[in-house]
Amino acid sequence: MLTTVSEWTEFFGRYRKRSSELLEREEIEVFDSTWLAIRPASEAAVDATQDRLGVHFPPDLFSFYLTCNGWPADSWYNPAINCLADLDWLEKQNPGLHKLVSDAATAQWPGRQDDDPDLVAYRLEQGTQVMRTIAITFDHDDQPTVLLDPESDWRLGSWLHSHPAMLWTDGGFSEYMIDRYENLILLDT
């Protein structure tokens, strides 16, 4: 897990190099200037965002924003990470998706009782847990919407338009960023 500014800085150096190797020449210039333009957030700005949202970020997310205030998209499936000013609850970021998952939280299954374990699990994973998340990416085109659930130890999930359901991971934010990097390596093989 990446939990310090120095760990994130070293990781971003590798990530940026790999991204640059894979992008076409025109995109490299945009990527370089975009990456350099995303300056670190101050600790006061991170604290103010936590206060605005009423949460305390885990160490990996806190140190991410102290290293860079957002991250650009680097492929069709790796969306841009929101800057602090754009972080918000799913209900405000994407009311349509929030409505969809609120319906899942009260779903009825024919022949199943409300206490059926499969129905209870579905309602939690696809409804309740999604409704209480913070969106760390915007919903653009066919890119996934990436969400963090502060009530489940900051578990991360993605809502994919091609697979209209929540896909939860066992990891958090830094694991997500490491997976993004590893996917860039796979593109090159």
From TrEMBL:
Pfam families, per the entry: SMI1_KNR4 (PF09346)
Domain spans labelled Knr4/Smi1-like: 40-179
InterPro entries per the UniProt record, alphabetical: Knr4/Smi1-like_dom, Knr4/Smi1-like_sf
Coiled-coil stretches: none
Protein name, per record: Knr4/Smi1-like domain-containing protein
The species this protein was found in: Rubripirellula tenax
Lineage, uppermost ranks: Bacteria, Pseudomonadati, Planctomycetota, Planctomycetia, Pirellulales
